[in-house]
Design goal:
- The protein is mainly α.
- The protein has two domains: 1-116, no CATH class; 119-291, Cytochrome p450.
- Helices cover 50% and strands 3% of the residues.
- It contains 13 helices and two strands.
- It is globular and about 55 Å long.
- The N and C termini lie far apart (52 Å).
């Protein structure tokens, strides 16, 4: 059993554009509160009582977000320490680019547990953010990734061959998850493909919140062990070597562990979710399939 003493915090990242905005930022809703009608079809008024943890938000995501886009440029939540949610594309883009006003150094997760580490490059500001991005970006450029296409396509064919004869497929477990797991483990980061299902489960954001801290810590234990192994092994010239070689006064060993965790989550988690969601949409919207 791994020692989890150094991982006592919960990571509950949410797939939503959320930004903290001060009252003087100019991003508050341009609609006076007295003119905002209560959203009668929902359990709460997401304009003034937004809550990322409300199950209704997931169940009726499209409806809620459409209403916010149409009528509420910036929503507010009083949950925990409180936060603001920027909804318009232009406003989100401005927040993302104006790092001096909307810093990432305090993390992008609302109501962050005390003691939880920050994960670069997503949760740091320049110049560290730019330096780390410059070190990793060459391995993720479109031209670099395009060169992987034959390998990825061959793996996709192998997966399809595995269920084609059956005539049916459980898309997530048989294709949408295994394909990015193969790419991240074998092609990009050189990790053991057999580790990927374990890490996907450990870094899952869909399980009970009370279990996320321990699960996420288990994943970090595995990632740290892999980095230690690679730090003493011959260089492979890949993104892991670039990460290990990167140095900055404010960037330390556990920051490197956190960065590889982010790359892993994005590669095997977010990619799989986007992949399965996109295929599901095409399967249920024949008009888009034909377009």
């Amino acid at each position: 059993m791994p020692n989890l003493a150094n991982y006592p915090w919960a990571v509950t990242l949410e797939a939503v554009f959320a930004a903290a905005a001060s009252p003087g930022s100019g991003l508050q809703s341009r609609t006076p509160l007295r003119k905002i009608r209560r959203m009668k079809n929902f359990n709460r008024n997401y304009h003034t009582d937004y809550d990322l943890t409300d199950p209704e938000l997931s169940e009726r995501w499209g409806e809620v977000v459409s209403d916010l886009h149409a009528r509420c440029p910036v929503a507010h939540s009083t949950t925990g320490e409180g936060y603001w949610v920027v909804n318009g594309y232009a406003d989100v883009a401005r927040c993302a680019k104006d790092w001096r006003t909307f810093s990432s150094a305090d993390g992008f997760m609302v109501n962050r547990p005390e003691g939880m580490p920050y994960f670069a490059p997503a949760e740091v500001d320049p110049p560290l953010q730019r330096g780390l991005r410059a070190a990793l970006e060459p391995f993720l450029r479109p031209k670099t990734v395009a060169a992987l296409a034959p390998t990825v396509r061959a793996q996709a064919h192998r997966l399809i061959d595995g269920f084609c004869a059956a005539g049916t497929v459980e898309l997530v477990s048989q294709f949408a998850n295994p394909l990015p797991q193969f790419v991240v483990s074998s092609v990009v980061a050189g990790m053991n493909p057999a580790e990927m299902p374990y890490l996907l489960e450990a870094f899952s954001f869909v399980g009970p919140e009370a279990e996320r801290a321990r699960n996420f810590a288990r994943g970090m234990v595995r990632i740290e062990a892999y980095l230690k192994e690679r730090s003493t092994a011959p260089a492979r010239g890949d993104i892991v070597d670039a990460l290990l070689a990167f140095e900055h006064p404010d960037y330390h060993w556990m920051d490197k562990v956190g960065t590889l965790c982010q790359l892993t989550i994005g590669g095997i988690g977010t990619t799989g979710y986007a992949f399965s969601g996109g295929v599901y949409h095409l399967a249920t919207h024949p008009q888009d399939r034909a377009a």
